[in-house]
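User: hey, got a sec? need DNA-(apurinic or apyrimidinic site) lyase folded
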Amino acid sequence: MPEGDTVHQAARRLHVALAGHTLTRSDLRVPKLALSDLTNRTVLDVTPRGKHLLTRVEGGLTLHSHLGMEGSWRLYTPAERWRGGPAHQIRAILATAERTAVGYRLPVLELLRTTDEHRAVGHLGPDLLGPDWDPEQALRNLRATPERSLGEALLDQRNLAGVGNVYKSEACFLLGVTPWLPVGELPEETATRIPALAKKLLEANRNRPARMTTGVDAPGRRLYVYGRAPRPCLRCGTRVRKAEQGDPTRRRPTYWCPTCQQGPTP
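Assistant: Yep! Here you go:
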């Protein structure tokens, strides 16, 4: 499940493979980009912004993509077999003489003028892994809707960019509150911890192949609650619970420990 740390890893891999090289093939497989061709343009850089990827090419163009829940960018050598999924799931192909980047199951793919990138990412809050990170602004954004549940507020990329469903559940566990507790009911000391905690979690995992929040790098023990239901909580032994959270169109599986976390539940 792509989150801010995953997107930053993808951006780094794509940047190393493509930046400074000229595209020998460009195939954008979405109807609105069917006639767009980036061949013979040099890739300038690949930059992450929250959960978004901005691939900038010469000529003032940016290919904006979003991984959504199941998307990915895979890199291959010229002789390597593509294994990211069936051909009908490919949305983009960017190739140089040495490497080929293939985008699978990308829910968002659009070509913008680089000067218009704000149309795609201007709504985002401070990026937890970006140069614009501003913890004070992130906290103000979260507190702007005090009646909203903490879990939903953390997932709203307009508040702070990069937290996904895994870190939502893990952060709430570490804060000792349920994801359904309204932001306005958080104790002051707990609320002020949120930006630093969220950043710490993503920073610690930005270079890891497998996410870890417990400090124990062993299968089944890397995360406190996410994906653990109905197994016992690693801290107290109570069975971890799972329920859906969010509006009907974007409900997300949410995990919590009924002993370690205080607050309302479904």
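Quick note: Residues 151 and 168 are 6 Å apart (CA to CA). Let me know if you need anything else on DNA-(apurinic or apyrimidinic site) lyase.
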